[in-house]
Design brief:
This protein has 505 residues and is an alpha+beta fold. The protein folds into three domains: 175 residues, no CATH class; 150 residues, no CATH class; 126 residues, Lipocalin. It contains ten helices and 24 strands. The strands form five sheets. An eight-stranded antiparallel barrel has the order 16-17-18-19-20-22-23-24. The chain has a five-stranded antiparallel β-sheet with strand order 7-8-9-10-11, covered by helices on one side. A four-stranded mixed β-sheet has the order 2-1-15-14. Strand 23 and strand 24 form a beta hairpin. Helix 3 packs across helix 4 and helix 3 runs parallel beside helix 7.
Length: 505
Amino acid sequence: MKRAIGIMIMVFIFAAVLTLYGLAEEVPYKGASPWAVPELDKAAGYGLITDRIKDNMSVPITREEFAEIAVRLYEINTGKAAEYSDTDVFSDTDNPEILKAYSLKIVNGIDLQRRLFLPKMFINREQVAAMMFRTIQATPLNFEFPAGKGGIFADENEVSDWALESVKFMTENGFLRGADGRINPKGTCTREMAVLIAARIYETYLSAAEAPAEEPAEEPAEEPAEDEGTTGSEPGTGSYDWDQIVINDTVIFRDNYYIRNKDGFYYIFIGAERLKYAFKLRNAGSYTYPEVEVIGGSITAEWSSGENVVLKAEMREGSTEAIVGGKIVDIGMAPYIIAGKMYIPINLFISALEMDVETSSNDNILFIQYKDAFPAEILSGIWSDTGIDLFAAAKDLESGSGNLPSYATAYRFNSDGTYELIKVSAAGINDTIIKQRGKYKVMGNTIMYYDIFETIYKGSPFSLKYRDEPVDRPHYEFVYNYDSKEEIIEIGGFWLNRVQQFPRK
């Protein structure tokens, strides 16, 4: 699997890094459905989970809570705080976030004559579509989403006339998804689903906005043009055109990274927005995310333990000098800005965190992982977040004759490098069974799932939607923690109990 890569290892070690093992991590959210956890982890890294909803993610979301998420999405995408001037808009709320949303024309209220917003009312799916459509309209963009043509749903006639354009826009762009040929416009939306919708918009915005049409017109003097690479390849020095760069479980695709050459050393550049969830740091067996702030041409990444800053790195556009742990260090190549987005060299973090860099020639993927690899042999067996062996109950689940848990996940890791996965959602809305089979391997603290085939059952009673459909891309999950005494493991941000252990061959 491995072949050598010419990545510069910088010659400095800071004592501060050694103290990272004692960090105390604040849980970013609670009460999420297992199927939603991997995407919610990313959304938490984006800053899209508000304080009001973080303690119970699986319950229906209110109009007030969703308005706060919409404003948060606007502020993150624009990099500026939303404002308001009219404080007497609604008679039933003075929430500043709702007033900001009204000022941005994201919300209108329910009864304008009586000036009602109804903040505690559960929001339905067509209202979600309308609010998010207006949020996108309020955001200055240098690219265009596809126009709202949408698909044809069996219940399209149930969509209110005022919401039809929004629903079609949201469905065409994949932000709002139906089930069984229906969009369910009057159905409620959970907090976790609301966050995932916002995250889909953010990721599309970020990916499109970060993809540069051309190299910057001006470059720092220390970076001669003839030595510089572009996205993917490095002229005259061999190919570095990876399909993906995987930092722990964070996937960065070809259009969102650069490889650059200076004096025979290679530097990896990623968008600054990716840093805050790519480089989570050890925290007494678990991990914590950095706070990342970009102001003008400067970027600061800060990892804290309580009120104490453990590690802080400061860089600025055009300068190869950075301040790390209070000391000035040479980072080799300077951050730079393309299309308003800052790209930073991550060699600094690879070196400071003592990470391995390797590539897979078969998969065309560059892996950046922690050296202290999680031992793959521990995984051999069946793991479940409910303690139920879903594999033994699979036939009963599919037929509907078994007792279905509201939400459940189980993995079967075989000693031959193959795996199976079952996810069940049977809360009465869009009941679903997801089954996967494929191969897996452990790299550092990350599990890579590949050669995946997926089967889906939906409805009540369950009906087969498709069987053994190939999944195009690998999937990654980070192993946060393992307790050998309790026989529990934290994968992708949620805990699993060992149900059965298989002997290693």
